[in-house]
Amino acid sequence: MADILIGTCGWTDPALLRSGWYPPGNRDPEKRLRHYATRFSLAEADSPYYALPSSRTTTLWAERTPPGFRFDVKAFSLLTGHPTRPTALPPDLRDHPRDEALRSEIWTRYAEALTPLRDTGRLGTLLFQYPPSLTPGPQAESFIRTARERARDWPFAVEFRNPAWWESDRTASFLRDLDATAVATDTREGPQQTPVTTPHLAMVRFHGRSPHWLTGTKEDRFRHTYTERELTEWLPRVRPLAERAKEVHLLFNNCCGDAAVRAAETMTDLLAQAHL
């Protein structure tokens, strides 16, 4: 059976900091992460989606977490075709055309910044989350394949926000050919089971079951408190993932207040009770 790692999508969300989940005296960046790592074995680093990280930052992440801890790191928005504000780019690249040459340079800097995580064994996977506007077809496949070729020496996971990708068996074979992990999700439609496409990792992101998924503000989209019953639904789905992959990553993204950390704690308890 696989190692099942559980965590949340981010550990510094302002609503989480206000919730009181972090004990008094554990609220500066170093103590927050050290405390978080005593409770969970996995975290998703979301900040690199919004701005390129520095190697100094990722070195500190590695130093503040124990051996065996993993970071799944979101790809910078430009690399996945999301709208990207000019101010999010390094100053010397802000006037550059939004083309493959720019994406190649951004990738080089992004990869350099994440090297400390990879060198210390803290990197779980890179997460390439593609927007709803990326519809299935040859052009989209070429865009993803180019990204994978740049990241050929790195673990690579793909989440599609357009459900049309999973209406065809072609998507699974496409990701297997790329050695890319297919990311399953839990949203208002309930559990979405996707094929295991790599032997080293299976991954689920729990976004919450808000009726405003993909339509409202960030708070509206992700405002949901998982019930024990909703999480229990996933137990028979996690088992086959654990039987087919070396690691399983379960990440909670219902990031309003302490809802994500509480859901992650509940899932940890449920898996222990189910002997998974």
UniProtKB/TrEMBL annotation:
Gene3D superfamilies per the UniProt record, alphabetical: Protein of unknown function UPF0759 (3.20.20.410)
Top-rank taxon: Bacteria
InterPro entries assigned: DUF72 (IPR002763), UPF0759_sf (IPR036520)
Residues spanning the signal sequence: none
Cross-referenced SUPFAM superfamilies: TM1631-like (SSF117396)
Pfam family, one: DUF72
Name of this chain's protein: DUF72 domain-containing protein
Taxonomic lineage of the native organism: Bacteria, Bacillati, Actinomycetota, Actinomycetes, Kitasatosporales
